[in-house]
Amino acid sequence: MREMAKGSNVGLAALSDDTGSVVVSLRWSSAAGDGDADVSVLLLDGNGKVRSDADFFFYNNPAAADGSVQLLGKTPTDSGSEDRISLDLTAVPDDVHRIVVAASQYGGSCFGELEDLRVTLADGSGEALLGFSITDAGVESAFIFGELYRRGEEWKFRAIGQGYETGLAGLATDFGIDIDDESEDDAVAAAAVEQVPKADERRPPAALPSAAIPAQAVDEARPVGVEPTTQRARGPRTAKKKVTLPKVAKKSLAENDSWKPARLFPAPSLKSDKERELRATSVLLSVMAEVPELGRRLTAAFGAPAGRMQTFTEVTLPHGDTPKRPDGVIRVERAGKLWTALVETKTNGNPLKQDQVQNYMDIAARRGYEAVITLSNDVALEGSPLVDVRTDGRRKHKVALWHLSWAEVAHQAQMLIRHEGVGNAAHAWLLQELLNYLQHENSGCHGFQNMGPAWVPVRNGIDTETLCQGDLRAVEVVESWERLIRQVCLRLGGELGQKALPVQRAKRGSDPQSRRAVLADRLCDEGRLTAELRIDGTPGVLGITADLRTARLRTSIEIPAPEGSYPLTSAKRLIRLLADAPADLHVETIVDSGHGPRGTLERLRPEPADMLPKDGARMTGFRLSLFKGMGATRGGAESGFIRSVDESVDRFYAGVVAQLTSLERRQASRSRPEEPTAVG
Prior knowledge:
Low-confidence stretches: 181-239, 670-680
Number of helices: 14
Helix content: 25-40%
């Protein structure tokens, strides 16, 4: 991979033969685990301006109609998160001369608060071609990481690394985006709900171009503490309004609950693993081909171009003396060229087989196919491949190996039909039928659902205090725990329409395996598995602790005390915010040193003063926790550990975090003074 210096440039053709579609990745980390930014892409003409506001791509306008640009969203990395952008350079219109890749922050944050700012670019096979690290970020709240630009028939990349103290509004104005005369935070809230039918379920992105929307919708999407404006935003819309499914389903016409609705993809009759694999592959590939939004979203990250997609199942391909039959084939045609991927599917927790995947990699290489996609219940981890395959370095043609989990498929389907929208009502219905199938107990597509063979021995070793540091079984459990947490994030993100990511607090430069070895040794010593989740729109980081010694799960969040507020006022305010929270919620006061008072919400409601430190210590905030018994078995059955983690997180989010956030916003909104309506 070529390392770029600030201001340098390089032609993509000099780095790879496969640069028709590229993936640009922006990454950063934060020691506190709470740093974040939103990516954006601008298409510029020969004058350095956007042709229209439709050339600006951001969280609520994530894809171009021609497939040239698609924001793929965030994925966790070993030390932070990575935001990826798929660019189909063959589909970029001829009058677009430059593609600017930027990111922005909101709420007074700046890029100097983040660490390890870096942009990388990978070719269609997934091979990283270039990287550029930014080390001089400061007070800027918007940053241009780099740009791709044309030189004749060739695309080149330039490392820029320059920022704007005026945020994305200042950056966008420079490139011809029409921003109205309102505060940047008002522009944030206005554009955040531009095309969203359910504004209360969306998070506020960074400042965006203006959009004509009701003032009431603006206030619903505004971050806590942002003052409202009564002036409506003006200017063109950035994207067409799309179809999403309604919140509440229509009343059923069935006589009683025993009547089951007819399903396009029935699953009750599935009995064998082979049947499940065949049905699941066919169902998914057929919907991908029929619903362009889903097909493009699932393949763009794998280097597929935007074009006409066709899918096939049970195709026989020659391979020595014994022909092979991959579970599926995906083909995308654009400008007379074909992109092809072989698909190998596993369901019901069955592992991928190395020899099968190796055979398909060899077949793909010989036939000039671009990729092999594995699909299973497992969630892939950085630095821990699900299957190891060898590649023949003598072959000029490269084949990329990608993995997709059923949890990721369900997440993308939910995001489209519940939050972002699709092209028409029929597509929304098809996606709902796909989701019904994936969630059916007989489909075998429930995602990661088994902690693995090391789970029981490790739990027994912790119980008998015979588990020692360096035990490889503890590393296996740590990896399974990480897969489970990433799946929890996918599920929550799909249901809420928010970004949900695990927080990693690894040392800079540490590799994933070393980090997991440290966590495994800690598990041996302390008997606990811990994780943190960052969910957009929530007031803090959600913590999860599985104590294998006591067989209890703890979900918690830390809430800072308001600046300048009296301790008793802060305690009373917290009790009001938690009016509908579970009575068994555990509340602990955080002080500068040592432990503060603690008790259940039921006991503290009539006496908020009991939360105040008795020794005069300075109170800095509160820790809210719920406890639950931990499932005994390793799987996702009713009594299983995975099921208990899901239930624990769901109860804590619905009973504590969601109410805390909603009531806090509502109270902040009621306390705002009325502002005069702007004239003109």
